[in-house]
C-alpha cells in the first residue's frame, strides 16, 4: 500500500465515514465504543484531524476491519515500488509505521509495514483485528502479549493474535522491523456487504 496516492488524512476521512455508515453506527456510538471524542471523530471524517497509530488501531478494533480498509489500499499488479521518502509516516506514542503494501491471496489478506520503535519508547495496543507478525531487522525489541514478554534481536520473529492486548518496547536504541498484519478475507467489509436497510448517514 503506497500512501503517495493521497495523504493518510484524506484517505482516512473518506473510508472512516464509509465503514462507519456500513456498520450502521452514529458518531456518538462510535465515540462511545472507541473512547475517541465525537469532536475528534468529526474532524477525522472531515479530513481536518491528525490521525495517530492509537486512533487508527482503535477504530480498526471497534469497526472490526483491517487497517487498510481505513487507509485505502488498492490491489496492484506488476512491479510495485514504494520509496522510503514517499511513504507517509503514521506515528504513535512510541512507533512510526510506513504502510507499504496490501496483498490478497486466497482467503487471506496481508498488510505490510516498515516499523520503527523509537529509542526508549513503548507502544501499547488494546488489540485489533487480525494476526500480527514481526521480524526484527536491527536493535533489541521487547514484545509483551497479554502479560507474556519476550525479547527479540535481529532476525528474530514473533507472531500472535492481534486481538490480545500487546506492546512493543525499544529499551535501548531504536528498533527497525517488518510488521505484517494478517486477516481472513471475510474480515474485510465491502460496500456490497452492508445489510439491507442500513442507514446511508448516521451523524449523531
UniProtKB/TrEMBL annotation:
SUPFAM superfamilies: lambda repressor-like DNA-binding domains (SSF47413), RmlC-like cupins (SSF51182). CDD domains: cupin_XRE_C (cd02209), HTH_XRE (cd00093). The keyword DNA-binding applies. Residues 16-70 form the HTH cro/C1-type domain. InterPro entries: Cro/C1-type_HTH (IPR001387), Cupin_2 (IPR013096), Lambda_DNA-bd_dom_sf (IPR010982), RmlC-like_jellyroll (IPR014710), RmlC_Cupin_sf (IPR011051), TransReg_Diox_bact_type (IPR050807). It holds the Pfam family HTH_3. Keywords: DNA-binding. The keyword Transferase does not apply. PANTHER family: HTH-TYPE TRANSCRIPTIONAL REGULATOR, METHYLPHOSPHONATE SYNTHASE. This is Helix-turn-helix domain-containing protein. The lineage of its organism: Bacteria, Bacillati, Actinomycetota, Actinomycetes, Kitasatosporales.
Amino acid at each position: 500500500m503506497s500512501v503517495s496516492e493521497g495523504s493518510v488524512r484524506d484517505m482516512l476521512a473518506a473510508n472512516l465515514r464509509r465503514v462507519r455508515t456500513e456498520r450502521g453506527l452514529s458518531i456518538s456510538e462510535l465515540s462511545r465504543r472507541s473512547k475517541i471524542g465525537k469532536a475528534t471523530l468529526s474532524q477525522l471524517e472531515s479530513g481536518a484531524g491528525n490521525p495517530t497509530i492509537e486512533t487508527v488501531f482503535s477504530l480498526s478494533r471497534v469497526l472490526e476491519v483491517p487497517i487498510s480498509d481505513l487507509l485505502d489500499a488498492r490491489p496492484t499488479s506488476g512491479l510495485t515500488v514504494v520509496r522510503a521518502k514517499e511513504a507517509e509516516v503514521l506515528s504513535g506514542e512510541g512507533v512510526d509505521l510506513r504502510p507499504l503494501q496490501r496483498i490478497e491471496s486466497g482467503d487471506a489478506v496481508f498488510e505490510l509495514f516498515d516499523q520503527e520503535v523509537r529509542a526508549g519508547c513503548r507502544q501499547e495496543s488494546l488489540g485489533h483485528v487480525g494476526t500480527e507478525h514481526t521480524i526484527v531487522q536491527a536493535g533489541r525489541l521487547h514484545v509483551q502479549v497479554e502479560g507474556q514478554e519476550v525479547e527479540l534481536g535481529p532476525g528474530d520473529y514473533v507472531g500472535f493474535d492481534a486481538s490480545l492486548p500487546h506492546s512493543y518496547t525499544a529499551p535501548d536504541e531504536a528498533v527497525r522491523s517488518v510488521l505484517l498484519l494478517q486477516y481472513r478475507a471475510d474480515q474485510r467489509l465491502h460496500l456490497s456487504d452492508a445489510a439491507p436497510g442500513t442507514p446511508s448517514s448516521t451523524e449523531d
